[in-house]
Amino acid sequence: MKKNDFVISTDKAPAAIGPYSQAVVKGNYLFISGQLPINPATGKIEKATSGEQARQSMENIKSILEECKLTTNDLIKTTIFVKDLNCFAEVNEEYAKFFSDYAPARACVEVSRLPKDALVEIEAVAYIE
Predict the structure, then answer these.
(1) What domains are defined for the chain?
(2) Which end of the chain has the smaller Cβ count within 10 Å, N or C?
(3) Against a cut of 0.85, is the pTM above it?
């Protein structure tokens, strides 16, 4: 890593399950790795529905943001990966609860499978002033 880059880690979000960091700062940007709907206290996926899993994934993102003294208002881009795009409305409803008048740019894509057989995974990019 270059000297102005650094890794972010918090026990308030699930630990990485592979060779990657929870998040990395590069210049004025925070890149948050895909967050599975894992409860950081138990290390397990406890939520059954796509909406509930989206909420847990966003809570994990929020915890990483807070570790950097940021909020969801600092997010500039997210990508949502869902196992079933038929659950889009349910995921969207929970995701929207994390934003008021501002929401970041976003993509949502259906994938055939996610780690730990999760139904949802969300990655994010935030801007640091």
Answers:
(1) 5-127 (3.30.1330.40)
(2) C
(3) yes
Contacts of 5 (CB under 8 A, 6+ apart): 24, 25, 26
Q: State the alpha helices, DSSP H only, in 7-127.
A: 50-67, 88-96
pLDDT per residue over 79-126, tens digit each? 999 999 999 999 999 999 999 889 999 999 999 999 999 999 999 999
Place of tokens 């918090």: 10
The total of other beta-carbon atoms located within 10 Å of residue 72's CB is 19
Kindly list the catalytic residues. 108
Which positions ≥6 away from 81 have C-beta within 8 Å? Answer: 34, 108, 109, 110, 111, 114, 120, 121, 122, 123
In whole angstroms, give the CA distance from residue 83 to residue 112: 6
What is the Cα–Cα distance from 107 to 11, expressed in whole angstroms?
27
